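Write out the 3D structure for:
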Amino acid sequence: AIIDAAIALQEEGILVPTAQQISEQAGVGIRSFFRHFEDMESLFQTADDHIRDSYEALFLGGDRDGAVEERIEHAVDRHADAYESVRNMVLGSLAQLWRYEVLRKNYARNQRGLRKDLDDWLPELKSLPRDKREAVDAIASFELWHRLREHQRLSKKASIEIVTSLLKSLIPGD
């Protein structure tokens, strides 16, 4: 119940819920919270263990066949849907990276996973010069996605078009 409460609060937009807020949402006392979790870091690790398969699955699958241009479009669509779904969880993690080692480790693991997944979508990336490969990761990142959607107030469709266009400009076609 405590983990579900923490996740629910983040999904509702409380990006950095306190132990007190989580306890209240879960319907347990604060002492019960700390009997289950030594500290917030142990809660974050347990929560990540609990939901990792579901958020990783958002990026997996999809139509990975076809010409380079098609695969870029499919990958961007897939990532866009996933980023929209995990937005608050990622923002909550980013807001607390400085404070919790477990979040830094999980974030780094997820970044490696996204890079590996892009390599699966687009094996052509392996032959790009390092600077272009790093640019591809930056363009395909949650951070750029969030900037386009939140700070530049662009629609999902417009954001997809921008990311797709930028990637196509860096990755040679068939």
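The chain has a mean pLDDT of 94.
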